[in-house]
Model the fold of this input.
Amino acid sequence: QVQLVESGGGLVQAGGSLKLTCLVSEFSGFGYSLLWYRQRPGKDRELIASITGDSQIIHYTDAVKGRFEVSRDNEKKTLYLQMNSLKPEDTAVYYCNALLSGTIYFPSRVSNNWGQGAQVTVSS
Done:
């Protein structure tokens, strides 16, 4: 089972930056594509960014495209999300996960072991 631990959240003013980190316990080289989700207050969890095992294909939802950057370090078993030009509407709990089936655009199955998430709060 994949274990996921997110860190790096916090409180930031609009226009600021934060970098989230996700430690992935089971990280078989280029095996898993990895995903970033967020859940905003009162909303469903949504996929915002995804990256293939070899980092060759990266996808962002329109809401974060051009402001967020996802990357991974396979040696360190770590996934990153650099968030720039943050807006109050980016306030959410951010989660990482591993793609088990489907594609990075339409995941059909991810790990059941969701981490605790990283709270990001953007003040106006």
DSSP finds no helices and eleven strands in the chain.
